[in-house]
Each structure stands twice: as C-alpha cells, then as structure tokens.
Amino acid sequence: MEEKDEDIGAFDPNIPEEDSSAPPPGWLDSVSGYEDHLGDCTDQICPPPPDFVPQPENDRNASVPKVMVPQVSEDVAREALLKFVGKKWTYSSKPAQNLVFKDLKPFTVYRYRLETFTESRSSAWECETYTGQFVDGPQYGMIPQPWQVEVQYPPKFTDTVQKVRVPHTSSVKPCYQCRGKGRVRCTHCHGRGRMQCISCHGSGHGRNRRCAGCHGGGRRVCTWCHGSGHRTCRKCNGHKKLLHFIQLTVTWKNQVYEFIPDQQPEFPMKKFEKVSGEAFFIDESLLVYPVDGFPDQEICNASKEATQEHLLKYSASSRILQQRQTIELVPLTHAFYSYNGKDYDYFVYGTENKVYTSKYPTSCSIL
C-alpha cells in the first residue's frame, strides 16, 4: 500500500519561517549613550570624551645623551661568519676559517621607535538563550556610559582584547527568529514534511516498475526534519526567549612606528627588522615630545613627525594611555677580507652578530 502525502507532516501555518539574522528595527530598547546601535551585532565605535584626550605642552622637546659607536673585533667577525656558514649546507667553512681580514669598518646606525599604547571601545547588541538566568536590567541601577564601564587593564604596551557586558542593559524578549515559537519551518521541505523523491524525481516509477525509494508515491519523508515540517530554532535552541544585552569590546593596541636612516645602499634595510640594538635613550610618559639636538637630524625629523602623527591619529577615536620613544644603536660592521688572492666582503649586524653577504668564496653544487 502506497504512503500518502497527508499521512506525514501536514502543513502548519502557525510555524513561522526562519526570520532574519538580526532583530528587526524597534525590537530592542533604546539605551542612553548607545543610541547608534541598529540592533544587529555590528560594533559601534565609542570615541573617548574630550577630557580623556591629552593635551601636549607647546615647544617642549626631549634631549638625548651622547653615545659611542660599538666596535667589532676580528675574532667576533670571524665567529659570526662561521656561524652563518654553518647554517648554509652549500657553503664550506674553510674560507671563513682561513680568510685574511683587510679592514673592519663600523657604521653608526640609529633606530628610532615610537610606541603609543591606546585603548579603544566599541559596543554592540548581543544575545544568548534565556533559560531562567539572572537578568541585570535597568531596574538594578544606572547604565554606565561606554567609557565609564570598569575593566581590568593589561600591562602597558601589550595588545589585548577584552569583552565586557555593560551593566543593567539586559532584557528578555521573544526570540526574533522563531517569533517565540521555539521552532521554525523546515526550509528543505517548506513545512510539508515530505520532499520529491530523488530516485525517481517525483514520477513514482522507474524502468517500468514502481520506485522502491518512495513506494510509488513520488515523494518521501524529509530527512532534514524527519517528516515534522519544522526544526528547532537555532537561535533560542527551542527555549522561545532570548536574553539581550549590550557588549562592550575594549581593545588595547601598541601602535609602533620605526625609522632607520637609509645611509648604507649596499646593505638591505629590511635585515634590521629582525635584530636588536642597544637602547641608549628611553623616554616614557603620557605624551612624549620630539627629540632635539641629536647629531643625526633625520632622527630628529622622524621623531617630530611621528609624535605629531600619533597624537592626531590615535586621539580621535582612541584614548592614549602611554607613549614611549627609544633610540637604539644597531651595530653594523662592513668586513673586508681576502681568500685565495681574491677580495670579498660581508656585513655583521645587530647585537646578535648576524651576517649578510651577497657573495661567498666557495659553494658546492649537486649535478
């Protein structure tokens, strides 16, 4: 006996289709200080109030002490080259062991760094399934403004993100996706509980015989809803209600600017990014001021431009918590040597004594 369509999953018009992924306009309450929220989960930037923006003092500068250029000895230069060659399986260590130094030429390389530690805040409506948990609504106190919400501050100059539920913004409402029904219409069978048979494409037969998949009915039970015509609402997990609240996202970011004067065309500047230098000037305060009177005028210019740029850029939408500027002396030595009657050279750079060379006396090749 063939199955009939009406035996399973009769269409129920009271079960709604799955609604939008965000609450409709007017679904959520308007909250003072958070009026720009549209009800979706999009973060809205909360600029800091004017009294949170630091004001720099006019015509103030930072002075820098004098510093000596570090020297690299022949033993250190040779050891650095041997270590470099040891990591290159196509290079022989013999030239590094037997080379004859002709000159070691140190260079004065300064690296200027400005760090601006900022805090930014944004907020958005969020929700979770309501299962009877405590609801911290407006009746429990005044709702704090975005920059009045207390948070746990991380160590300075550390990138961190913290999410905080804004106090007293919680409320319970019917689930907007299922309209408080706890279930939604199955989108695969459109609430009918049955679908066209994929074996016979709805004809009920194939190759002059009744289709075994649908027993000749042309339709079979929907495998997605098991014939019910509906499924549990994924937004409220069938609980029919949602707990809505405003979530504050606090982002601490260390904004970094670096500058090294490009005075050595034979040495690739990007190599400096992965090595350390010796910091001889460290200036840290709420706001730092341009370096003045330093022998390298390019460093002074970079400091002036960077401090002005960071103040304008980051105080508009963020709060500047601390600034730090440093000047490092990054060791760089140009080593000239001869081997087997030919002249070669390489660079030793950084406090790690890294080596850069564009040409080495011998290399092995595999045919």
Architecture blueprint of SSEs:
Elements: E1 44-46, E2 62-63, H1 74-86, H2 94-98, E3 100-107, E4 110-129, E5 160-165, E6 171-174, E7 183-185, E8 194-196, E9 205-206, E10 209-210, E11 219-221, E12 230-232, E13 241-259, E14 278-285, E15 291-292, H3 297-314, E16 319-329, E17 332-339, E18 342-349, E19 354-356
Parallel strand pairs: 2-15
Antiparallel strand pairs: 1-4, 3-17, 4-13, 4-16, 5-13, 6-13, 7-12, 8-11, 9-10, 14-16, 17-18, 18-19
Brief descriptors of the model:
3 helices; 367 residues; 19 strands; disordered N terminus; 7-stranded antiparallel sheet; 4-stranded antiparallel sheet; single chain; mainly beta
